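quick one
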Amino acid sequence: MCGIVGAMAQRDVIGILVEGLRRLEYRGYDSAGVAVINHDRIVERTRALGKVAELETKLAEAPIFGSAGIAHTRWATHGEPAERNAHPHISNDRIAVVHNGIIENYEPLREELIALGYNFESETDTEVVVHLIDTLLKPGVSLLEAVNQATKKLRGAYALGVIANDDPEHLIAVRQGSPLVLGLGIGEYFIGSDIQALLPVTNRFIYLENGDSVDMTLAGFTIFDESGLVVERPIKESLASSMDSDLGEYRHFMLKEIYEQPAAIQNTLAGRVELSDLRSCISGDKELLEKVFNEIREVQIIACGTSYHSGLTARYWIESLTDLPCNVEVASEYRYRRQPKRDGVLFITISQSGETADSLAALEKVKQEGCLATLTICNVPESSLTRESDFSLMTVAGPEIGVASTKAFTTQLVALQLLTICLMQRDPKNEAKSLEMLTNLKRLPAIVEQVLQQDDMIKKMGEAFIDKHHALFLGRGDLYPIAMEGALKLKEISYIHAEAYPAGELKHGPLALVDSEMPIVAVAPNTNLLEKLKSNLEEVRSRGGVLYLFADEKAEITEQSNIHIIRVPEIPESLIPIVYTIPLQLLSYHVAVFKGTDVDKPRNLAKSVTVE
Ligand code: G6P
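structure w/ 6-O-phosphono-alpha-D-glucopyranose:
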């Protein structure tokens, strides 16, 4: 949700800032802007409605230069996407601010500032921040002091970057709730919403903590904690390369990331499936982990979006393969709901980014209320969820740029299956089954590779969806969440309204929608629920519905005029939900490309939702 980047260097920083924005565009792309202190020590700003490319065009037409600057790509919350609402926001032509997050008490602050004579040019919550700093930045008061006094009055979540004419040698950054990293170059320093933004200029980072503020100059930087004391934060060297977030030979990041799945799954399994003690793939205090495995009575999973679907899939595994009950809930509901106190609950968050505001808030609530332990399944080491949880089980998918999540999802399923096996291994009688599942997992990358080879056929199938307005996705058992994920992918990127149903529920409503204009997608491998599913599919066919099936040979369903089938290899049952995800991803991708939507940056969405 909005990306911010800032730089302080001896060279012109516009190129660094714009490249940083390009890499942060997955966080929001309604508008973009940049502000620098120019060589006359004056704040200069350029903003554009739309994507970063629009900003680049404007900058090419009317270049600005400076060696200290801040920049922003926006996902609108307060105020429609419009140039006047784009960041950086400026006060009195002397202070510029970029902001990621939400200032909850902006309305009373706005009233106060209007009473003081400030004119607001935007409808954003951010503009109060810059005017507030303006009221406080007086002779004898440094920019850092003014920013710190201002943030004391703010409620909400924010990461800020601030520059000012009056203090041109300083760039101030603050983190409270929203993510912010400090990048360390040689004699130059940067801020970014994540490391991706800064990888072209450095691989040395400091992950700021909540309440931290940074005073950055060309000579170095000082970090202050929330009580104002100077603190040292560890410097981390990232192995990620700026190439990881380049498109390479692919037309879209989504397609690249779909094709990266065999490697991403392999990397998530690497060094783990062979472990004599599988539990050691979970990072955290070993003694506490021992206690957790002895005392666990229940699993509670919370997540958002695609990550929620991986949690729903895992519930089927945990409850059918262990003696533990497992609840799964979206974080935005869980965080505001009272839950009765239960003992022995392992609280699991699942998140690609590790920064999703609702998931973080749910974790915070659980920590306050108390639970056996907290564990996150996450793709970003050093993310807030990873740092705030007792344990982490990392997915190793590499950076995911496409807004529609693909490789993060399948690697989450892999991690969740490893976790299920760990939980199964608490009972010696599960030894053979858990060994079998681990052996199956080793085959998974090759099977995914095989399924990817059906891309052309899936693309052909996608043609039938181009002029459709609605689609139904059906699955049963642990394939119901996979159908949900398939429907989410289609609606996110092709804008076709898609719903998923457990196939047995068709007759309780959705059947009324079925006609020849409603494509029905079903995942139909040969499992113990296949016969039930087949009856449900007959219900659809006899009402004129056209079926698009993903099934193996053993399912014994034959292609007919209103039944189109993509054959998926016969695979062990434990791998089915993971493998059947792949063709659904490809189907949505091709439909979106046919429809000409912006696949990697679908309208109104953002990859990382760091606001409520
Ligand atoms: C956004 C993204 C989704 C993602 C969800 C949860 O909605 O567009 O792709 O699944 O956030 O994100 P997380 O990083 O917590 O998995």
